[in-house]
Amino acid sequence: MSDFWIAPSILSANFARLGEEVDNVLAAGADVVHFDVMDNHYVPNLTFGPMVCKALRDHGVTAPIDVHLMVQPVDALIGMFAEAGASYITFHPDASTHVDRSLQMIRDAGCKAGLVLNPAVSPDCLRYVMDKLDMILLMSVNPGFGGQKFIPSTIDKVREVRQLIDASGYDIRLEVDGGISAKNIAEIAAAGADTFVAGSAIFNADDYKTVIDDMRTQLAS
Ligand code: DX5
Ligand code: ZN
């Protein structure tokens, strides 16, 4: 794994052959599997849950699975995803009544914990829980659907949160999610991100390796 992680979002994969899609994207050089959980309540769409995560583990996936919970409430799913083989579990602070407790529950369940901020949510809420975070995920689209356009104001937020992480001294990954492609990945990295979710840019391409290689070339530039 390089310092920059590419995290394909399986939201844009072909669900009819999900195991094969995940195998292919990992063979093409992806670092982690981004797993978008939607509940048709917190976001206006519905995807998959812990059983599908477990099915990927049973299929033989050993790469980290980065579970992005777009659900409300959050807590009941934490233990289930930990059991199902999640590596990271991230949730939106506005979806949990007791954010500190939910973060602690994730770590107690043996997973890495993270918070996800929607485009209009201020980073202020991170300040008092930095010691409980392994990942901060900044949404660069409004959550719910793949294939949306990157919201440019995210770049300033990435810079701000990078400073917050560096000043804290904690080892926290800074992930960005939505509208990322080889065209804008270098700019997002330059602002301070180290983990990049990409759904449609990868899964809508004919050759996953070409896209991932292209992203890595941009990151090295
Ligand atoms: C949106 C999801 C994203 C999404 C990214 O709610 O959290 O992970 O699938 O897809 P693209 O890369 O197509 O914007
Ligand atoms: Zn996501």
TrEMBL record:
Give the residues the record marks as binding substrate.
9, 68, 144-147, 177-179, 199-200
Active site: residue positions = 36, 177
GO molecular function ontology, one term from the record = D-ribulose-phosphate 3-epimerase activity
Q: What is its EC number?
A: 5.1.3.1
Q: Name one GO biological process term.
A: pentose-phosphate shunt
Q: What does the Swiss-Prot or TrEMBL cofactor note state?
A: Binds 1 divalent metal cation per subunit.
Q: Which Pfam families match?
A: Ribul_P_3_epim
- PROSITE patterns in UniProt: RIBUL_P_3_EPIMER_1 (PS01085), RIBUL_P_3_EPIMER_2 (PS01086)
Task: Specify the superkingdom.
Answer: Bacteria
Q: Which cofactor does it need?
A: a divalent metal cation; Zn(2+); Mn(2+); Fe(2+)
Give the pathway annotation. Answer: Carbohydrate degradation
UniProt catalytic activity: D-ribulose 5-phosphate = D-xylulose 5-phosphate
Answer yes or no on keyword Zinc-finger.
no
Coiled coil segments of this chain: none
Does tRNA processing appear among the keywords? no
An example Gene Ontology CC term for this record: cytoplasm
Binding of a divalent metal cation: at which residues?
34, 36, 68, 177
Which enzyme class?
Answer: isomerase
Q: What does this protein do?
A: Catalyzes the reversible epimerization of D-ribulose 5-phosphate to D-xylulose 5-phosphate.
* Similarity comment text for this entry: Belongs to the ribulose-phosphate 3-epimerase family.
Stored NCBIfam families = PRK05581.1-4 (NF004076), rpe (TIGR01163)
Protein name (database record):
Ribulose-phosphate 3-epimerase
